[in-house]
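Task 17 of the worksheet. Students: predict the tertiary structure of the chain below and write it out as structure tokens. Keep your answer in the requested format; marks are given for formatting as well as content.
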Amino acid sequence: MKSSERSFARRIDLTSLQLFVAVCELGSIGRAAEREFIAASAVSKRLSDLETAVDTALLYRHSRGVTLTPAGESLLHHARTVLFGLERMQGELSEYADGVRGHVRMHANISAIVQFLPEDLGAFARAHSQVKIDLQEHLSPDVLHAVQEGAADLGICNTGGSGASALQSRPYRSDNLMLIVPAGHDLSARAAIYFEEVLDWDIVGLHANSSISLAMRAAAAQAARPLRQRIQVTGLDAMCRMIDNGLGVGLLPDRAFALMHGVGRLAAVPLQDAWAHRELRLVARDFDALPVTARLLAEHLATPTPLPPH
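Model answer:
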């Protein structure tokens, strides 16, 4: 900060800004003084000092009250922004006073949320009960974008797409894709299968930009075969129900399928393609620059909680 900027900041006090906003909102020094429980002469003095500090007139004073000069309009906008920021700061700091040591904003893809995060976040919450975690589910490309733009402190996703190179990443978990078919399907007795053989069948898929859908499209293009993805759903349970009712076959991570037990009479066949083994990674703009609570969570996720068998 330049010396002139520091000097300006020292000439402005928050009480004068609050009184200035009150006068603007009420259009009268007298009414503002009454609302703020302060003498009108004291308010007038504060406003005069504020005009001296910014070296320009902020208010037109007349018999019916006051109106804003162009400079006053500008200051009102900035004053409201400053005061709103202070209110937010007070709200967050009050959480520390109440024993909440902070919060972490995290975005993750559906595979991480369904398969691994319930156990990992549950263990973290038990060890750090005063830390709040704001978790949102997004597609992997959107997770990367949110972390890069600062909308999330941490992300968990597949990092094969664009945007990952600008971020730091650490290993989190891995999974393997399985072909899910109805029980008794022609492919249900196979010990393993290559995805190219699946292209003869209608496919029930997730969102078009999900990491699984992107991988399937790339594999179909590599094989120079069309991808017969007739149905797209947004949830794994919906996919399983569609497959159970004979509307196609689909791909799911192994642990996700194990957690879907009871959703239809289904069989799972391991995929043999190399891309069927997937790495989920923890991403951040800079792990060392994270807030303390986010660093704690990142370190916890680096040593994942043992998963119960399914």
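Marker's comment: Residues 102-173+278-302 form a domain with the D-Maltodextrin-Binding Protein; domain 2 fold (CATH 3.40.190.10). The two ends are 58 Å apart (CA to CA).
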